[in-house]
Amino acid sequence: MDGLDGQINPFMDLDQRGKCQAYYIWIDGTGQGLRGKTKTLMKPTMNPDDLPTWNFDGSSTMQSLGENSDIYIKPVACFKDPFRRGDNILVMCETLDHEGNVHPTNHRRSCFENMEKCKDLHPWFGIEQEYTMF
Fold first, then answer.
1. Which residues pair with 23 in a beta bridge?
2. Which of 69, 93, 96, 111 could form a disulfide with 73 if both were Cys (CB 3.0 to 4.6 A apart)?
3. Could you report the per-residue pLDDT of 123-132, keeping only the tens digit for each?
4. Rounded distance, CA 107 to CA 114, Å?
5. What is the per-residue pLDDT for 9?
6. Residue 67 and residue 95: Cα distance in Å, rounded?
7. What is the DSSP string of 63-132?
8. Taking a C-beta distance cutoff of 8 angstroms, is the pair 58, 83 a contact?
9. Is the pTM of this model over 0.85?
10. Alpha carbon distance 9, 29 (integer Å)
């Protein structure tokens, strides 16, 4: 079973022969939509520094800054993929412009920098979640 619709999916259990799928995830130009694409890696890793920076055309995600629409997605965190299972991973990314600078829609970087400034204060954060839907 693939866990989504209750049906058996024989492709989920195919031998990947030592390779793994890395699903790169980033926030689009709206600040609310998630985007993603998959890269096949020759060997499993959980270290974002081992993963290549990748690119996409930002005009389709409202992140194009004009004539050069290349946007780069840089891995910053990896997690086991609960959907594809095995050695496959989810890769959280930040966006960079075509020159490698922080993209204006990349709010993750400014959050990270501010968190680093106050990490000695040991801030606490919590999300009040009344309901969980699966």
1. 38, 90
2. 93
3. 777 767 676 6
4. 11
5. 73
6. 17
7. ---SS--EEEEEEEEEEE-TTT-TT-EEEEEEEE-TTSSBPTT-HHHHHHHHHHHTGGG--------S--
8. no
9. no
10. 34
Q: Which two tokens stand for residue 16?
A: 């990947």
Is beta strand 70-80 parallel, antiparallel or unpaired with respect to 89-96? antiparallel
Q: Using DSSP, state whether 21 is helix, strand or coil.
A: strand
Q: Which residues contact 110 (CB under 8 A, 6 or more apart)?
A: 102
* pLDDT tens, residue by residue, 10-66: 777 777 788 899 999 999 888 888 999 999 999 999 999 999 999 888 888 888 866
Query: What are the backbone dihedrals phi and psi of residue 23, each rounded to the nearest 5 degrees, phi first?
Result: -95, 100
Which pLDDT score, from 0 to 100, does residue 56 have? 86
CB atoms closer than 10 angstroms to residue 14? 8
As beta bridge partners, residue 75 has 93
